[in-house]
């Protein structure tokens, strides 16, 4: 019972941290603001997450769990039709996409606490995208690229569309643009 309550509290803290980071950015977010939002003292929050960096990484890991449906999807388990669904899903949750995008942008600085998380995550994502492309096209895509060559391009399109959509959602239909990209890859449009 106590363990379940502890897990619920942890999940509540992660949701609050995501909200605070979305509102203020990582650098502007404080442990005190997160603690206040969930009715804890800062010392009480430190019982669950010993540092701001640990909380940030937990938020990012939780966001990835949401994206994979909590499945702990392995690097090779992506499918192109599921990527299309993920882009659709992301279009329904701009706050989470905005927070992720802001943290990704911040993480390119040398000492950012999420840099290692994103570096590792992108290595896994590229590996997973290469496996998805290989499952769909074999060893070469219609244009001649290998799945490993095309994987970073696929990831760049997904992330780049998110930035464009966040900046001008009225002009960029992220799901439709992603489906257009899949058509460029030689995949017939979904019915």
From TrEMBL:
Pfam families associated with the record: TetR_C_6, TetR_N
Gene3D superfamilies documented for this protein: Tetracycline Repressor, domain 2 (1.10.357.10)
Keyword Transcription: yes
Record has Iron-sulfur as a keyword: no
Origin superkingdom: Bacteria
Ranges for domain HTH tetR-type: 7-67
Keywords carried by this UniProt record: DNA-binding, Repressor, Transcription, Transcription regulation
DNA-binding region: 30-49
InterPro entries in alphabetical order: BetI_C, Homeodomain-like_sf, HTH-type_TetR-like_transc_reg, HTH_TetR, Tet_transcr_reg_TetR-rel_C_sf
PANTHER family, per database record: HTH-TYPE TRANSCRIPTIONAL REGULATOR BETI (PTHR30055:SF234), HTH-TYPE TRANSCRIPTIONAL REGULATOR RUTR (PTHR30055)
Protein name per the record: TetR/AcrR family transcriptional regulator
Native source organism of the sequence: Streptomyces albidochromogenes
């Amino acid at each position: 019972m106590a363990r379940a309550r502890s897990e619920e509290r942890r999940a509540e803290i992660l949701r609050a941290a995501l909200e605070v980071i979305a509102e203020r950015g990582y650098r502007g977010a404080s442990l005190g603001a997160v603690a206040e939002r969930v009715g804890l003292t800062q010392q009480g929050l430190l019982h669950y997450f010993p540092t701001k960096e640990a909380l940030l990484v937990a938020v990012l890991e939780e966001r990835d769990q949401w994206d994979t449906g909590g499945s702990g999807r392995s690097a090779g388990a992506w499918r192109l039709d599921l990527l299309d669904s993920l882009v659709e899903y992301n279009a329904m949750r701009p706050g989470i996409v905005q927070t992720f995008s802001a943290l990704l942008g911040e993480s390119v600085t040398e000492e950012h606490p999420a840099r290692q998380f994103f570096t590792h995550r992108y290595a896994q994502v590229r590996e997973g995208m290469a496996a998805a492309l290989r499952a769909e096209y074999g060893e070469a895509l219609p244009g001649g690229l290998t799945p490993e060559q095309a994987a970073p391009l696929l990831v760049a399109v997904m992330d780049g569309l998110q930035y464009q959509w966040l900046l001008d959602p009225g002009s960029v239909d992220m799901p439709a643009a992603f489906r257009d990209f899949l058509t460029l890859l030689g995949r017939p449009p979904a019915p």
